[in-house]
Specification:
6 helices, mainly alpha, 0% strand
Length: 125
Amino acid sequence: MSRSSERYGRASFEAGPSLRQILAFGLYQALVAVLTVGTAFATRHPAGALSILVTLLWALPSVLLGLGGPTLADVNNHLPYGAGDHFMRRGAEAPYPPVAAALIVAARAATAHLVGLYVPRRRDA
């Protein structure tokens, strides 16, 4: 561990880790944007899309982690927020590597986007 990360906790101000964190954050935000667009297309209502996204990205992880237990923590690790957190932060406590975490978030985003493409075609046909 570098001297700067020892003094300041988890933060690292070295070029390599900082660039990796910036790129990981940008990729995570892009995947959340894809998830958001898919959800918005599927619901066709701003309040419905916002309710689903707030529940999926903030409320459900808070409840699962607040209740505690290894099973609920494992469920949270496979939601977009939990997987994104493991992807953006490197740590020994992560249950899977960062690439697997990115693939989990990408799979959730792709699923939402495909549902968002399918539902309006089916509904408006």
